[in-house]
Write a structure and sequence with these properties.
TIM Barrel; 2 strands; AKR_Detox_Biosynth; mainly alpha
């Protein structure tokens, strides 16, 4: 799209809006690196992952007797779309731990992590209550230690898969680049 806009004299794209949070990180495979390379800002939505990262769900919600009935609650929505899983609750547990260490809410920690990501220029938030956006305003005050950021990055890490894993292997680097490590250009 950038090339078409450039060739036609149109305004270029300026941002990429995708779901990105500690649970949904698949954009890190290709979309976020593409945006950074093309000079696009990344504007992630759903930093609290549908509320899963706020600490309002527990493992009991995974097996609640009425969970299958689907009565239209946020929990039912998260169960139905795969957002409420054991893996995701493990991530939420680490978010709660870090929030406790910092004296902030889990929602603030999730949003602050999002804002710390390379290329992120803003984060879109949604709110069901007036208290939620007020709470979110505390996110810029979150001051992570490097160890806390590393814990958060690690707990929600995804495998980049093909072709990233193959291209990162020593054997492939030796075959294609003579063993040199190719880095992205600096702007």
């Amino acid at each position: 799209m950038q090339a078409i806009a450039d060739l036609r004299g149109w305004s270029p794209l300026v941002a990429l809006q995708i779901e990105h949070n500690l649970i949904e990180r698949t954009g890190e495979r290709d979309l976020i690196p593409m945006a950074r390379e093309m000079g696009l800002g990344v504007v992630p939505y759903s930093p609290p992952a549908g509320g899963v990262l706020t600490g309002k769900y527990s493992r009991a919600d995974l097996t609640a007797p009425d969970a299958v009935a689907g009565d239209g609650t946020r929990r039912d929505f998260n169960l139905a779309n795969g957002g409420l899983t054991g893996r995701n609750l493990d991530i939420a547990d680490v978010v709660k731990e870090v929030a406790g260490e910092l004296g902030h809410t889990p929602a603030q920690v999730g949003l602050a992590w999002s804002l710390h990501r390379p290329g992120v220029t803003a984060s879109l938030i949604g709110a069901r209550t007036l208290a939620q956006p007020k709470d979110n305003l505390g996110a810029p005050e979150v001051d992570f230690t490097p160890a806390q950021l590393a814990r958060l990055d690690e707990v929600g890490a995804i495998e980049l898969g093909f072709p990233h894993d193959m291209l990162a292997s020593d054997r492939m680097r030796a075959a294609t680049h003579g063993g040199l490590k190719v880095e992205t250009r600096r702007r």
